[in-house]
């Protein structure tokens, strides 16, 4: 009996081994080439079924755009997976052959998948639909998704950062808006010192929150740094990156040091009734364009203004990523995917979105801060049509500042190791600001780690 | 006492037995053993996700493990975590189990309350701990400040990030506690009565009766917790690596987190599979050592 049992077990294991190795054997072969994207053709006349993985938790703007795009693709049956993009899920779906036709993801991720041959270059998609990317989107927005001279995604949204001033704190300290100037660190530091307050060594009011780890690209690119080389390789150890990091360190050291600064800002009730402006916890703070929407319900409790973020040369500058739509190399209906993504980002789609947003704002009695679409045409149209004086001069000036700087965008560059680059840069900033490493050493270590990821992904 | 001789099962009963457990066997063969063998084959290959093809790589991936300093670094971080977390969890779980074992009125209520943290999703727990561990305003440092101690910056200071993950891991101590509680319930009362008559106090009773009698449960928990500690992912990932704008000191890079990054951020499936097999071998050796040592000290009911 014992022998029979052992034999049975051995036979079972052998069966599984055979099955698995058989499968592996079938898959074995050359790993050269990507997904064969070059041979895919796009057609403006579309039909069939379209599977999209996009619009997680769609709001009024998202729903209006989905409806608009569906009308442009009459005859195409569209099914949507409205969950958030997840790198692990995407990878698993690709490996399992369960590939959607179009996927929404952050622009930062795009070069990673492009380098692996997992998504399609879209030149043919644009030409089949008579779209010139340089005309439709801001140059920096296209730059975010351009890798090896090819555009790999249909971008959407560009919500630029600027500095929102807390006039209450600034007035009390005698600080003027022109003192919050990131191109003049000495002037900025003097203003910070006037506004900074602490109790028992713990900050209670920051003069200026630079968003040291939340706006890394902005700080480095605006202050003359270079993070990505022309071929997408990381350049974190470029000497030009020392200055931005040293500037950040001075700003943070003037406000209790990084550990206390971080602990303080982590405790902000950013989206709540006790946010940092209501509680006067900041004199000024770098914020993306969407943040005035968060502050809008508190317009009667706060006094705010805004100034542009200035580069080392004194000129306004913005750096930010946004969303995009990509078409996987193994998509079954790439033509419909292309047309759908382009429909979502054309003027009519944004007009539908702006109309929906205006209706929501009317209902909520909120302030219309505009939509920042990533495309200059719709941005201007929406501003002219829907963004009217709100009766709150401070908010109107904030909104106007964001519109003034939206065209000043610079791309941080597109690297296949983009995710790793951001993580390593964040860690380099942390260790330098904590004083554990010199800026040079921190950036050199980050470069080594990012290069390793770059070689692995780009295969060079 | 004579041991009962096991009854010989006949052929029909054996077939019935196999049929009953066949769903589990099939599941094990396909989803565990099959997946393991497949991952072993990936570890000797270069796997291209775009084409779903593998190319033989020999021992390259295993060689790369030795050359990548982050493999050793993440292993060191994980070892540090295991050395700190396993004994602390054993002691805390045992302490709570002993307390609950003494409760007579409302025992069910207290058991439920103590078990609730285990039922809380890791994401929710991490959100709470991000608040609790805040260096300036967190409840832990506020409590320390109340007794005159300036607490550390748990989530920022590299020296304290691993202890902060240990603290979060201890939140789920109740799973271990329940096993201890069940073991404590099985310790015969008359042993304590006899010990009391002989003049043994509570501490003596604990070391000479309780601990030996529940040594099987202790041994089981040590092995399970050690394996879990080397595979720890959720806590480190949620506190430090959930997105790229997070401050994630090198000290928080645990082995499973690095493995995840290699597989799903850098598409190094061969390397990640090799990492998984290295961990498997390490755990196999550790468990073998624990079993060897444990067999000397563990009391099994029914043994002579």
Question: What key phrases describe this protein's structure?
Answer:
heterodimer, A: 460 residues, alpha+beta, D-Maltodextrin-Binding Protein, domain 2, 2 domains, five-stranded mixed beta sheet, three-stranded antiparallel beta sheet, 19 helices, 12 strands, globular, disordered N terminus, B: 304 residues, mainly alpha, MetI-like fold, two-stranded antiparallel ribbon, 14 helices, 71% helix, 3% strand
The amount of beta strand of chain A, in percent, is 5-15%
Shape of chain B: globular
Largest interface comes to: A-B, 59 and 52 residues
Indicate the overall shape of chain A: globular
Write down the CATH topology of the largest domain in chain A: D-Maltodextrin-Binding Protein, domain 2
CATH superfamily of the largest domain in chain A: Periplasmic binding protein-like II
Secondary structure: number of strands of chain B? 2
Rg from alpha-carbon coordinates of chain A: 25 Å
Q: Give the class-level CATH name of the largest domain in chain B.
A: Mainly Alpha
Q: Name the CATH architecture of the largest domain in chain B.
A: Orthogonal Bundle
Task: Give me the secondary-structure topology.
The complex is a heterodimer of chains A (460) and B (304).
Chain A: H1 2-27, E1 48-53, H2 60-72, E2 76-81, H3 87-96, E3 102-106, H4 110-115, H5 123-128, H6 133-136, H7 139-144, E4 146-147, E5 150-151, E6 154-156, E7 161-166, H8 167-173, H9 185-195, E8 197-199, E9 202-205, H10 216-222, H11 242-253, H12 258-266, E10 284-288, H13 291-295, E11 304-307, E12 323-326, H14 334-344, H15 347-364, H16 376-386, H17 393-405, H18 418-433, H19 439-458
Parallel strand pairs in A: 1-2, 1-3
Antiparallel strand pairs in A: 3-12, 4-5, 6-12, 7-10, 7-11, 8-9
Chain B: H1 11-43, E1 45-48, E2 53-56, H2 60-67, H3 69-102, H4 107-119, H5 122-132, H6 139-146, H7 158-170, H8 174-185, H9 189-197, H10 202-213, H11 215-230, H12 234-241, H13 255-264, H14 269-297
Helix pairs in contact in B: 1-14, 2-14, 3-7, 3-8, 3-11, 3-13, 5-12, 8-11, 11-14, 13-14
Pfam families (chain B): BPD_transp_1
Subcellular location (chain B): Cell membrane
Family (chain B): Belongs to the binding-protein-dependent transport system permease family.
């Amino acid at each position: 009996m014992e022998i029979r049992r052992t034999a049975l077990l051995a036979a079972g294991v052998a069966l599984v081994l055979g099955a698995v190795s058989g499968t592996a054997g079938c898959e074995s072969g050359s790993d050269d080439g990507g997904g064969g994207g070059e041979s895919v053709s796009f057609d403006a006349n579309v039909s069939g079924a379209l599977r999209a993985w996009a619009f997680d938790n769609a709001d009024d703007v998202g729903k209006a755009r989905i409806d608009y795009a569906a009308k442009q693709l009459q005859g195409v049956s569209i099914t949507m997976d409205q969950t958030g993009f997840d790198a692990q899920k995407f990878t698993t779906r690709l490996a399992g052959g369960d590939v959607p036709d179009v996927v929404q993801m952050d622009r930062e991720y795009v070069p990673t998948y492009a380098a692996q041959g997992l998504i399609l270059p879209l030149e043919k998609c644009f030409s089949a639909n008579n779209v010139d990317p340089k005309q439709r989107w801001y140059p920096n927005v296209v730059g975010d998704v351009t890798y090896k001279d090819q555009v790999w995604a249909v971008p959407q949204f560009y919500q630029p950062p600027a500095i929102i001033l807390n006039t209450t704190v600034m007035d009390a300290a005698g600080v003027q808006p022109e003192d919050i100037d990131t191109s003049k660190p000495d002037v900025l530091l003097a203003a910070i010192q006037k506004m900074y307050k602490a109790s028992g060594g713990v900050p209670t009011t920051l003069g200026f929150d630079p968003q040291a780890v939340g706006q890394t690209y902005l700080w480095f690119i605006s202050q003359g740094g270079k993070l990505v080389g022309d071929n997408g390789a990381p350049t974190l150890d470029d000497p030009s990156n020392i200055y931005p990091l040293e500037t950040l360190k001075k700003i943070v050291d003037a406000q209790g040091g990084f550990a206390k600064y971080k602990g303080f800002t982590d405790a902000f009730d950013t989206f709540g009734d006790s946010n940092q402006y209501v509680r006067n916890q900041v004199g000024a703070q770098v914020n993306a364009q969407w943040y005035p929407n968060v502050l809008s319900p508190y317009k009667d409790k706060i006094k705010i203004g805004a100034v542009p973020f200035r580069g080392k040369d004194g000129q306004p500058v913005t750096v930010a990523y946004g969303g995009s739509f990509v078409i996987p190399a193994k998509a079954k209906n790439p033509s419909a995917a292309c047309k759908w993504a382009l429909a979502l980002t054309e003027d009519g789609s944004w007009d539908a979105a702006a109309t929906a947003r205006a209706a929501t704002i009317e209902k909520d009695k909120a302030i219309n801060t505009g939509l920042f679409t990533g495309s200059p045409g719709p941005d201007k149209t929406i501003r002219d049509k829907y963004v009217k004086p709100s009766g709150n001069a401070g908010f109107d000036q904030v909104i106007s500042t964001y519109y003034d700087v939206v065209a000043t965008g610079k791309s941080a560059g597109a690297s296949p190791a983009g995710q790793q680059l951001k993580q390593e840069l964040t860690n380099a900033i942390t260790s330098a600001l904590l004083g554990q490493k010199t800026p040079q050493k921190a950036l050199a270590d980050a470069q080594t780690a990012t290069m390793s990821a770059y070689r692995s992904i780009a295969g060079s | 006492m004579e041991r009962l001789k096991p009854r010989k099962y006949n052929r029909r009963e054996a077939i019935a037995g196999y049929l009953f457990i066949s769903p589990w066997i099939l599941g094990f063969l396909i989803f565990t053993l099959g997946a393991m063998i497949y991952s072993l084959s990936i570890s000797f290959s270069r796997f291209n996700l775009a084409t779903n093809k593998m190319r033989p790589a020999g021992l390259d991936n295993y060689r790369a493990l030795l050359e990548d300093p982050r493999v050793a670094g993440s292993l060191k971080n994980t070892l540090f975590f295991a050395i700190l977390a396993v004994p602390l969890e054993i002691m805390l779980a045992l302490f709570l189990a002993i307390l609950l074992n003494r409760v007579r009125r409302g025992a069910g209520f207290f058991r439920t309350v103590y078990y609730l943290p285990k039922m809380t999703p890791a994401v929710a727990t991490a959100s709470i701990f991000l608040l609790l561990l805040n260096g300036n305003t967190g409840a832990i440092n506020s409590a320390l400040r109340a007794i005159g101690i300036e607490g550390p910056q748990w989530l920022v200071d590299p020296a304290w990030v691993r202890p902060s993950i240990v603290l979060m891991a201890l939140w789920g101590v109740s799973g271990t506690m329940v096993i201890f509680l069940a073991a404590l319930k099985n310790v015969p009362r008359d042993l304590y009565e006899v010990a009391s008559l002989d003049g043994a106090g509570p501490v003596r009773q604990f070391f000479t009766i309780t601990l030996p009698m529940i040594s099987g449960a202790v041994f089981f928990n040590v092995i399970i917790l050690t394996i879990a500690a080397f595979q720890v992912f959720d806590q480190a990932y949620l506190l430090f690596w959930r997105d790229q704008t997070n401050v994630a000191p090198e000290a928080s890079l645990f082995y499973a987190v690095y493995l995840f990054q290699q597989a799903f951020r850098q598409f190094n499936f061969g390397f990640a599979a090799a990492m998984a097999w290295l961990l498997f071998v390490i755990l196999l050796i550790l468990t073998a050592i624990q079993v060897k040592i444990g067999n000397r000290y563990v009391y099994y009911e029914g043994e002579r």
